[in-house]
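Case 191 in the screening queue. Each case pairs one protein sequence with one candidate compound; here the compound is FNR. For every case the pipeline is the same: read the inputs, emit a complex structure as tokens, and attach any notable structural observations.

Predict complex for case 191.
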Amino acid sequence: MATRYRIGYFVGSLSSTSINRLLAKALVRLAPPALQMEEIAIKDLPLYSPDYDADYPPVARAFKQAIAECDGVLFVSPEYNRSIPGGLKNAIDWASRPWGQNAFSRKPSGVIGTSPGAIGTAVAQQSLRSVLCFCNSPLMNTVEAYIQFKPGLITADGEVTDEGTEKFLRNYMDELHLFVQRVLTVLPREA
Ligand code: FNR
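Case 191 output:
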């Protein structure tokens, strides 16, 4: 049987009407059967402080454990003020600490996002890429995916209404699968 990979995904928006959550739903639908998609929620994490390093609260331990159990991670995020939302950065900071226990180290990742604006979160993604680089996460360089959101592009159930966009997103998930497979072939997960 073909290997299945667990992919934890983060939705960078806390909005109840998030278009990035719609995009995440679409990606779950379009993922190849070899990818098992699971959301890793960021909304319950308190603001990170190094004061927690000696004794992480249960919510942060569970958060890090969820990442540890995945073969790869996917960031589906809006752009806020030409960067990533503070809530997502806070979650990454939690995952990266205490020093020496960075949950993203050697964990393959992909980034994607949508915005009503024409550049479709491109600047936020560049910012996120440099953070993930520092966190030692092997990052899928291409396909890049800057999705301009138009009303109705993705239904509440995550169905993509535009054929070209659906094809593009399906290919993105196929490429993510191949990338995770390649990375784990040379960098197997530690037991
Ligand atoms: C935005 N928005 C935005 N859009 C963009 O393309 N570039 C940007 O820098 C920003 N900055 C920004 C800051 C803040 C604080 C907010 C609330 C919004 C608009 C943003 O793309 C839009 O609200 C999306 O709907 C956000 O994605 P979610 O939350 O719907 O997934």
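Case 191 observations:
- The beta strands are 5-11, 35-39, 72-76, 109-115, 146-148.
- The pocket of FNR is lined by residues 13, 15, 18-20, 78-82, 115-117 (CB under 6 Å).
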